[in-house]
Structures are given as structure tokens and as C-alpha cells.
Amino acid sequence: MFNAKEQVDKIIDFIRSYYKNNNLGGVVIGISGGKDSGVVAGLFTKALGPENVLGVTLPCHSKEEDKEDAKLVANYYGFRLVNIDLTNSFDSFKDQINLLGNFNDQQLLNSDINIKPRMRMMSLYYMAALESAIKGKTYIVAGTGNKCEEYVGYFTKGGDSVSDIKILSDLTVSEVIKIGEELKVPEKVLYKTPNDGLSNQTDEDKLGVKYSDIEKYINNELLDENIKQRIEKLHKNAHHKFNIPTYKK
């Protein structure tokens, strides 16, 4: 039986121990307005105190609702939230790409979707370095991916795959929600239908499989054979994201 309170205490101890052993001071978290970043923010606020947590919203042709939901999380936990709008930067980059040739929307779709999390991660690391310089103590970037997402490779290499500390990577979606309930993450955020804020599709629409089924697969529960094969295909196709081949002389 999953004990959310026990896990919250263990994760907080994990964070505090890592920070003490490595002489770290604070954390920067990309706050998307979804459950994962809300839970991560809640855990770090409890572990380090709100004064050592910086949340960042990074809209890029995004829904205004996502930014408002991020504010709900920041206001509830009491940490500082700043906004860096990447829309103009993205548009300027696309202007340069358009000079290279006439590409159709389908050719550009995957590149356009993946450049946004890469721009966002660049921005988070910039803010971590800036905050470190201002506060005189080291800030690092927290990852927000959960076990189900990571298993099927639902992340961008060089984007949201990059972080300095991960605290949800061994927790399934339902476990993250239970921890969110324990932390009292605002309900509007915790139970929000997951989407990437990039493609106007839900996560499950893009994946072609439900998170609950990914969780069943991970837990070796009975599953429709077609769904099982879909999950296995996603996992296999994502192998290149987990391991970088390195030639050694």
C-alpha cells in the first residue's frame, strides 16, 4: 500500500540531505500549472523553505490559464514566481528558420514542439546562475518528470530531460496525485488534464495510451495486448533518450 505521508517525509529528507552534503542553497522550478510541477514545488518549499524556492513561468504561445494556475501554486506555498515570456524569442528563431527554405507545417511540427522545452530549460539554468550570484549560494534546477512519462520517453532530449535533481522519477502518476493530495496542491492544478502546453493536445492523445495503462504495465498488471505492445514500442523507440553512445579508444 502506497503511503503518501511517509513518502513526503522521505523525499523531504532526501532533498535536505543532498543539499547539506553538496552545500547547496536553493532551487529553480519551471511551474507549468500542472500537477507534477505543483507537487515538486510543494516538496521543495517544505524541504528548503519558500524563501529558497524560485518558480518560473515560461509561456511560448501558451494558454493564459496555465500561467494563472502556476500563480495558484506559488500563492499557496508562498514562493516567488517570475515570468519570462519566450514567445518573441521563439518567433525570432522561426524567422531565421524560414530563411532556410519553404517547409510545410507537418515538417516543422516536431521541431517546433521540441524547441520550446529546450528554450525553457536554457532559461531555467540562466535563472539558477543569476539567483546564485544574487543570493551568494548555489541554486540548482529541479526536474518535474514522473515515472510514467519517463518510461515511455515522453520528454524532450536536451529540454525537460535536463535537471540537477529529480524527485518524481520513481513515482507513477497516481502516486504523484496522492502526494499532491497530502501536500494540498490546489485541486484545479492537481486534477487538471495533463497536456504539454505546446501542441494543443493532451498528453494521452499524443502518446496514444493512457497514463493509467502505463502504470498497469509498470506494475505488471493485466493489460490489453494491443495497449501493451503500444507501451513497449514507445519505450523501445525512446532508448536513444536514455543512453548516449560514447566511443572509447
Q: What do you see in this structure?
A:
This protein has 12 helices and 4 strands; from the N terminus they run H-E-H-E-H-E-H-H-E-H-H-H-H-H-H-H. With 249 residues, the protein is an alpha/beta fold. A 4-stranded parallel β-sheet has the order 3-2-1-4, sandwiched between helices. Helix 2 runs parallel beside helix 3. The protein is globular. The N and C termini lie far apart (49 Å). The mean pLDDT is 95.
Short summary of the structure?
The chain has helices at residues 4-21, 35-48, 64-77, 87-98, 105-135, 147-151, 173-183, 187-190, 203-207, 211-218, 225-237, 239-242; strands at residues 26-30, 53-57, 80-83, 139-141. The protein is α/β, with parallel strands linked by helices and 249 residues long.
Q: What topology emerges from the helices and strands here?
A:
Blueprint: H1 4-21, E1 26-30, H2 35-48, E2 53-57, H3 64-77, E3 80-83, H4 87-98, H5 105-135, E4 139-141, H6 147-151, H7 173-183, H8 187-190, H9 203-207, H10 211-218, H11 225-237, H12 239-242
Parallel strand pairs: 1-2, 1-4, 2-3
